[in-house]
Amino acid sequence: MNTQLSLNPITDLRELLTFPFMVNALEAGTIVAVLAAVVGWYMVLRRQSFTGHTLSVMAFPGAAGAALAGLPTGLGYYMACGGAALFMRRARGSIRRTYGTETATIATVQVVGLAAGFLFLSLNNSVLGGTETLLFGTFLGISRGQVLVLLIVALVALALIGLAARPLLLETIDSESARARGLPVAILDTGFLLVLAAAVAATSQITGALLVFALLVAPAAAAQQLTMRPGAGLALSVLFGLATVWLALGLAYFSIYPVGFYVTSIAFALFLAARLARAIRTRRA
Amino acid sequence: MFTHDFVRNAYLAGTFIALACGTTGWFVVLRGQLFAADALTHVAFVGAIAAAVVGSDERVGLFALTLAVAAGMATLGRRGEADDAVIGTVFAWILGIGVLLLAVLATSSAGGTGVAAANALFGSIYSLTPSGSRLAAVLGLAAALGVLLASRPLLLATLDTELAAVRGLPVQALAVGFLIVLAIVTAESTQAVGALLLLGLLAAPAGTAHRLTASPYRGLALSAGVAVFAVWGGLALSYAISSLPPSSAIIGLAGAAYAVATLLTRARRRQMA
């Protein structure tokens, strides 16, 4: 892009917003940042990061498979992520096992999905071009329709989380006492995994399958370094997520380097800063 | 099919990589370190791309970065802090750097970039050179032997850290050493099966073995056996069906073994009930 960063932030901002693709990217990024921050906050608290990562990787076979079958790519994302979530839930729920064997299931699901995606791509004769976009994302080609779908998915997912916010929190922190109180623990667990799958599928359309984590884990982990109060933590997580996406999109617009690099670096920097802040605070106390 | 050099190279390297992945993977699953292993494999991809940008041998980047990250995880783990969130955040960032390097690669030199990236991600076991496959075999054998020789103390340190420490075992050194071996296995295997699919060779055979037997030595043998079976079968399948990439076939077989083991344990449990 032949754009220059001037010293006046107002003109820079105005220039950013003159292009429809930039407006779409900012809107999609904002939606995804809020969704990923809220869902990610619960995910980090539930120690399901590995599950989340596996779901995010499922976006790759989903998109590749949809391309092969001639279906809309977005549909492939949601179907693959949802299917993997249900499968992992079933594999885990049926038998009580150690953490190690549970992760073996998750990891196997992940690589079988990836291998399938690679196979779909090679059947489709598009090994090189498609792979990078699927894995590392792009923000240039987002359409109005995509933004609308993202908005609907995000609203539904956030509404579900909002409805179940307190019981989900109790189930996360102490599933035994949640069960004793008569909460539908199994439904909460499955429901959360499905919401996580939807959030991951939505996010990976912007960030690519491999970089979802920057928006899903880092803002939430940074927030949990600073406060364990649910309300404040969720708010901070959303704030970090928004800051990451807006800064990254702005920087990527004015430079030749991909947005994925900026998203991950800013998210990581925020996480490090939060850690540092906590370390300083504990030393003082 | 063994008249072709590239097939022989692939079988030579693949067999010993499978042995190493099977034995190391059994301990990775037992220690609950699959997410760390996953992070290491992703880091290996960035190492390969970095080597391509600098223009050095792929192996230099692979080994340098995986060993560095393994050492970093080991030191963080000492204070008991390297939890899911930290691993996730760190490896997302390293992948982000990988994306930057991909862009640098695309702007600096014309052509070949997509191939380097795709090879690093999905492996290219059929394009190994004779010397490369011999090195892979030696390293794989060394890693497998190392794990087997250290298996008794490692087992005790994993299952009962307190007791191992009381008995005077160097628990800390074992943990660090194990991660280093894992890093070596990762770096070497990435060239064959690729950064994204390597986790399958670590997880699926080991998961199969853990399902079927609780005895450590039988488990280690079974895990290595399933891994070797997956590699041999996968290579043969992809040789027979040209549109099937070898790494997909290998992972498909390993995943199938895991699915069969799961069904077997379920059937066995139902019989007992």
What this model shows, in words?
The complex is a heterodimer of chains A (285) and B (273). With 285 residues, chain A is mostly helical. Chain A has a single domain, classed as Orthogonal Bundle (ABC transporter involved in vitamin B12 uptake, BtuC), CATH 1.10.3470. Helices cover 82% and strands 0% of the residues of chain A. In chain A, helix 2 (20-45) crosses helix 12 (218-226) and helix 12 runs parallel beside helix 14 (259-284). The longest helix of chain A is centred in the first third of the chain and has 26 residues, at 20-45. The radius of gyration of chain A is 19 Å and the shape is globular. Chain B is an all-alpha fold and 273 residues long. The radius of gyration of chain B is 19 Å and the shape is globular. At the A-B interface, helix 3, helix 5, helix 6, helix 11 and helix 12 of A face helix 2, helix 4, helix 5, helix 10 and helix 12 of B.
Distance between the termini of chain A: 50 Å
Tell me the number of helical segments of chain B per DSSP (H or I, 4 or more residues long). 12
CATH architecture of chain A: Orthogonal Bundle
Order of helices and strands of chain B: HHHHHHHHHHHH
